[in-house]
C-alpha cells in the first residue's frame, strides 16, 4: 500500500494556485503574455514593429515612471534617433535565447515587476532593497593589471561556495532584485558559476571579464543560457591595453568579441579612464570600432586610488573628467550604442548608488561592501547567516545607514561619489558605522590619500558646477515625468534609468 502523502505535499497544488491567482501572480502572467508579444515585435526589426513594441511595453509597465519612459522612447524612434538603430541591432544581432532573456529577465522581472516587489519590501521592512547586486565570487585572475581596483585582495581561495551565493540570490529575489553583476577577479576561472546562471533563468547576469578565457565552448554555453551578458575590459587600442594588461591581451579580446558577435551573445565594453589613456576614449573612431565589433553597450569608469598601484597620478585631471562627461552625452546622441559613465552620470541614477541605495557589493570573502570601490564593511554574509539573519539585515547595518544618510545630500548629481567627490563623507560613514578595511591598505583613501583627493575634488567641483548650471542638465532637475520630455527636444535619451517609483504601482 502506498504511504499517505504528507500534508505539505497534499497542499502544494493549492499553494501554487493561490500564488498564481494572487495580484502579483496575475501581474506576472500578464507580463509573460506581453513579453511574448514584445519578442515577436523585436524579431521583425522594421521601424513600424519597433514603434509598436513601445506601445505594448507601455501597456504592461507597472508604474507611471516606466510608462513615461516607453512613451518617450517611442518619440525617439519616430524621430529616427540612433536609439532606433540600437534596438534594431538587438533584434538582428542577438541569439533568440538572449533576446528572450533581455525582455523577460532584465526588462520584465528586474525592472517592471522588480520595482513593484521592491516597493512592497520597502513598505513592509522600512528599507529599500537594491535594484542590482554585484557579487565577486573569486579574486583569482590570470592577469596582473596595473592599478587594478581589486588587486590588493588575496587571490588564494574562493571563500564563497556556490550554495551561499545561491542563497544570497534567492533572498535578493524575495526582495525584488533580479539583476546580478558578477565581478572579481576574473569570474571565468570559476566554471561552476555556470550552474548558478542556469538555475536562475528568471534573473539577468552581467559578467565583468578580461575576455581572455572565453573559448568556443564558453561562447556556446552563453548562447544556450541567454541570461548572461558580458562587459569586456579594454584600456583603449592595442598599445594602451597591452601596456596595462599584458602583451597580446588586446588581440585576444578582439577575437573574443568576434566569437560573441557571431554567436549572438549580448556584450559590451568596460573602459577605465586614466590620465594616460583617456585621449583614446575621446576619439569617435574608438566608439565606432566598438560598434563594428558588436558591442551593444559600454561602461566608462574612472580610475580611483583604492587598490593595487593606487597612484594618484593615474587619476584623470579635473579637466579630463569634464571632457569624458561631455563626450559620453554626445555618444548617446549620435551612436547606436548605449554608454554610461559611473562617475559623471549620477543624473541617470539620481545620485550615488552605493550602500543599498541602488546596489551593494558582496566580495569574495562574503564581506558586504557599499560599493565595489569602497573597501570597507561592517558585516559578512556568512556571519549573518550563522546567527540566523538574512541579506536584508545587511541593508540595515549602521555602516550602510551612515552611507545612505550622506550619499545623496549634494544637489549636483555630477558630483555623486563619496570616494572622490565627497571624501569626507566616506571617512565619517566608516567611523560612524565602525566599519573595517576589507584588505590591507584600503584605509589609505581616507588617510594617506585624503588631502590630495579632497583638493582634486575641489578643482573638479568648479567644472561640475558650471556644467550643472549651464542648462544642459535642466531635465535632471525636474520631476521624473518631465525628464525625457526635456531630453528628447535635444535628441538626448538621458533618464533616471534605475529610479524607483515612490507612488504606489498602478
Task: Please give a structural write-up.
With 506 residues, the protein is of the alpha/beta class. Helices cover 50% and strands 9% of the residues. It has helices at 7-21, 23-44, 47-60, 64-78, 82-93, 96-125, 162-175, 193-199, 216-225, 238-245, 249-263, 278-281, 284-293, 318-334, 346-349, 381-386, 391-395, 398-406, 423-432, 450-468, 483-488, and strands at residues 132-135, 179-182, 204-209, 228-234, 267-273, 297-302, 338-341, 359-362, 368-369, 376-377, 436-437. It has a nine-stranded mixed beta sheet. It has a two-stranded antiparallel sheet with strand order 10-11. Helix 2 (23-44) runs antiparallel to helix 3, helix 14 (318-334) crosses helix 20 and helix 18 runs antiparallel to helix 19. The chain is globular, with a radius of gyration of 22 Å. It starts with 6 loop residues before the first helix and ends in an 18-residue tail after the last helix.
Write the layout of secondary structure elements.
Elements: H1 7-21, H2 23-44, H3 47-60, H4 64-78, H5 82-93, H6 96-125, E1 132-135, H7 162-175, E2 179-182, H8 193-199, E3 204-209, H9 216-225, E4 228-234, H10 238-245, H11 249-263, E5 267-273, H12 278-281, H13 284-293, E6 297-302, H14 318-334, E7 338-341, H15 346-349, E8 359-362, E9 368-369, E10 376-377, H16 381-386, H17 391-395, H18 398-406, H19 423-432, E11 436-437, H20 450-468, H21 483-488
Helix pairs in contact: 2-3, 2-6, 3-4, 14-20, 18-19
